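Budget justification aside, the reviewers requested a transparent look at the raw inputs and outputs of the sequence design task funded under Objective 1. We therefore reproduce one unedited record. The lines immediately below are the structure tokens for a 112-residue chain.
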């Protein structure tokens, strides 16, 4: 299994970005792919994940602004980020939880 994260960049506060996590190999379920981020000097935190219920889980600070989704045909999980804030700055990683496999990370920088 390999994960390739992309879509990061520099954006002004209030802007949007869409991150992609392309999965290859023996992926049992895209639902096991989660998005994390690590801000400078901070610990890595879970940002978004699918659940067995109807609604995905989000860290409180991104609720209403970020949306996780998947395209089974493309083996890709997305993180749509809107109304970005400077505190969203960091390296974003996708992780395949069933085998603890991480993508290489993509840097998001939000300027004020």
């Amino acid at each position: 299994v390999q994960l390739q994260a992309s879509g990061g960049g520099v954006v002004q506060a209030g802007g949007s970005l869409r991150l992609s996590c392309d999965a290859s190999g023996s992926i049992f379920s895209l639902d096991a792919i989660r998005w994390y981020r690590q801000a400078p000097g901070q610990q890595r935190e879970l940002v978004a994940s699918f659940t067995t219920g109807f609604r995905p889980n989000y860290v409180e600070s991104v609720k209403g602004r970020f949306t996780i989704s998947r395209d089974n045909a493309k083996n890709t999980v997305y993180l749509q980020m809107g109304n970005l804030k400077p505190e969203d700055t960091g390296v974003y990683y996708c992780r395949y939880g069933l085998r603890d496999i991480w993508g290489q990370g993509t840097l998001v920088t939000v300027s004020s």
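The CA atoms of residues 50 and 64 lie 15 Å apart. The chain has a mean pLDDT of 96. Computational costs for records of this kind are itemized in the attached budget.
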